[in-house]
Amino acid sequence: MEGFNLFMNSLKGFSISSAIDVLVVSIIFYKGYILIKETRAEQLLKGVLLIFLLIPISEFFNLTMLSWILSNTITIGVITIVIIFQPEVRKALEHLGRTSFVDKIIYEDEEVMNNVVNEIVDAVEALAKDKIGALILIEQKTGLGDIIKTGTKIDAVVSSALLQNIFVVNTPLHDGATVIKNDRIEAAGCFLPLTNNDKLNKQLGTRHRAGIGVTELTDCLTIIVSEETGVISLAVNGRLLRHYDGEKLKTILVKIMKSRNKNKETFKERVKRWIKRKDKTF
């Protein structure tokens, strides 16, 4: 009854701001669940909810020992969660960072973007034809500075000939990833994090797992050429799309990069545009 009376009293003070508060918190919880869905963190969340459910039950039945263990588990568990699930926490924070009011413009000149895509696709087609393995990262809104530091600095204009030369077998840089930023090849021979996705085809090797892994943590586009089969694949947002030809790869790259390159209108800019439109009406 005490809990019921408390609930009824809280309803009396329910206002518009309270409704907004509930709505915002609901959206945050929903977005959080979407981020951890089908990851290790989802199973952890179920375990935490079970513990929270058991605590009042143990107190109701006066199970002192169990109640003490569960309460202390929650206290220590928060720190443990942050340590164990650091990749998921980082992914969530980076996702929030990318949803800013002012988006980063990747390519100010669309012609430059098309030239870069053409050079990359030409190189990938040639490498696939000769069955030469390749791993190419195209930076988007999330910076790849920490990955660039693991490789050898190149800082050269993107060209098909240079990309092909980098991945020639038995050369010093052929076995790592090459990072492209805007119209420059920033670095080659870079190390990437491997994906922990255990649902991937077991036939996929380290190159594919590294290509998928980096797209789970950033919004970069990763092109992978299989050394065994010459199959061209594209990794985006933790998903691997396979069996591309040059024309199909070019089309999807341009489509994704154009959509991400659009500068989103901020709330302030929308208000200004609305005011101008109203001024013209009168």
Summary tags:
282 residues; alpha+beta; YojJ-like (1; 7-stranded mixed sheet; 11 helices; 57% helix; 14% strand
Describe the structure in your own words.
With 282 residues, the chain is of the alpha+beta class. It folds into two domains: 2-97, no CATH class; 110-261, YojJ-like (1 (3-Layer(aba) Sandwich). The protein has eleven helices and seven strands. It has a seven-stranded mixed β-sheet, with helices on both faces. Strand 6 (232-236) and strand 7 (239-244) form a beta hairpin. Helix 3 (40-60) runs antiparallel to helix 4 (64-84), helix 6 packs across helix 8 and helix 6 (110-129) packs antiparallel against helix 10. InterPro entries: C-di-AMP_synthase, CdaA, CdaA_N, DisA, DNA_integrity_DisA_N_sf, DNA_integrity_scan_DisA_N. It catalyses: 2 ATP = 3',3'-c-di-AMP + 2 diphosphate. Residues 86-246 form the DAC domain. Catalyzes the condensation of 2 ATP molecules into cyclic di-AMP (c-di-AMP), a second messenger used to regulate differing processes in different bacteria.
For the biggest sheet, the summary is:
7 strands, mixed
Report the C-alpha radius of gyration, rounded. 25 Å
The residue fraction in helices comes out at 55-70%
Uncertain parts: 278-282
Tally of strands: 7
Tertiary shape: elongated
Strand content: 5-15%
* Individual helix count: 11
